[in-house]
Fold Proline--tRNA ligase.
Amino acid sequence: MKQSQTLIPTLKETPAEADVKSHQLLLRAGYIRQNASGIYSFLPLGKKVLQKVENIIREEMNAAGGVEMLMPALQPAELWEESGRWFTYGPELMRMRDRHEREFALGATHEEMITSLLRDEVKSYKRLPLTLYQIQTKYRDEKRPRFGLLRGREFLMKDAYSFHASQESLDEAYDKLFEAYKNIFRRCGLNFRAVLADSGAIGGKDNHEFMVLSEIGEDTIAYSDSSDYAANLEMAAVNKQYDKQSPSGKEKEEVSTPDQKSIEAVADFFGTDKENTVKSMLFIVDEKPVLVLVRGDHEVNEVKVKNAVNGRVAELATEEQAIQYTGVKPGSIGPVGLSEDVTVIADNAVEAMGDIVAGANKEGIHFKYLQAGRDFEVSQYADIRVVVEGDPSPDGVGTIKFARGIEVGHVFKLGTVYSEPMNATILDENGRSNPMIMGCYGIGVSRTLAAMAEQFNDENGLIWPGNIAPYDVHLIAVNMKDEVQAQTAEELYKLLTDYRYDVLLDDRKERAGVKFADSDLMGLPVRITVGKRASEGIVEIKIRSNGESYEVQKEELTDKLQEIFRQLSNE
């Protein structure tokens, strides 16, 4: 491709709205352009990289037994109502009505659509297992789109769904696709970890996220410093034994605590450590009030709260809801004297506490000398706090450390979360009707591109791996007005194209400095410069990743390129 005939609008300055490296470089190098908040066009360079990532995904998915298809982005509301998610998914689901007032959603994901297709087409266990996938644009009305392609309202995704007659079959497919995902991200050259994760709005149990390690990642990964254990912070289990404290035996006592709203202020007021106080936080889980108790020096893990009571949606209660169920605003809430409508659960650390300081459900009043079991009842003790660095690793090997990560993939064992409510059943070998057992497997394709841009760059621009780069070679004629340079560049362009290299020829009438700066910015693996020594039959080769350069005769060019690309493929 000749650069004068394509669209690569590079920028000298970093756009003001771009606050992370990938966003800055993809804009400056002419890979993407923003059309609206969280909505981007992929320009020719960006589209070529997307296609390279898609091809890797297709190869690995096909090798794992997947079959590609394509479903509509526009989905009838009735399908989402069948699964129950029309009411629970939240404002991120883009909803609309057609001219006949029928409700639709723009696909944020396709569990409902694929389940409805399979229930109509597959009736016997003999037709299973099946793994179907698509690569398609998805839509989510993000409250705060940011970081360019990393959190947008429109994005490209690979989503796959497997259907099974038995749990064993699902487990086998899950393991295959788990390995396929590792192969995909390895082939993309990414530094990543597979971590235990929560299923969120998708539903189901047993799932992993694939996290690209990055300082700008929105997720925190908790990992062992001595083993392979890794989990999203929200799913990292606490593996800690607490020494049982002996209570003083004193009766609970009300104490006026005016303006002491935070746990730090309350602890200071009583002249004690935060670990002797209890945070009482009211959550609404599936529209029911749940009071959550954790030690004052710990933080509540909302995902663990939801899972502890087998809920689907857990949200911190509003001030109005707190008053409705406890009679007081947050800051003075406590476990004593609650109505039977409120379920009380506590973290395991609370069970080991002796005398407790906690809210009294009266404005500006706290109790001291509280004892669980004597002054209030806890329906369930569970691990519901956030793990902290230095905690023992859940697998018993080493201690927990934190890192930041960008989620690029997620695999789920859905079970019958969708097939049961949507009546997607098959007849088993005994003629009995059973719901299909499902798995779900997603990769953010455009997000993966951005994650690679985060990892593959330097101060001059992008540095693409050879198998991902939009072109193999950037061929630059320093001065197109020089007849020898122009002719040499054209000859080499034809030669390299005949050798099946994907070549971008910079034939623009620009200054050499502009061409070289743009070349570094775009990040193609190899640059070939046709300059003043073209009259001697000599050109320069420069490797983008390490800056090494060589001067070679034109006749030696293809042999040297083969050597360089062999070297790059082994790195």
Residues 253-382 form a domain with the YbaK protein fold (CATH 3.90.960.10). The chain has three domains: 19-237+401-454, 253-382, 471-570. The mean pLDDT is 94.
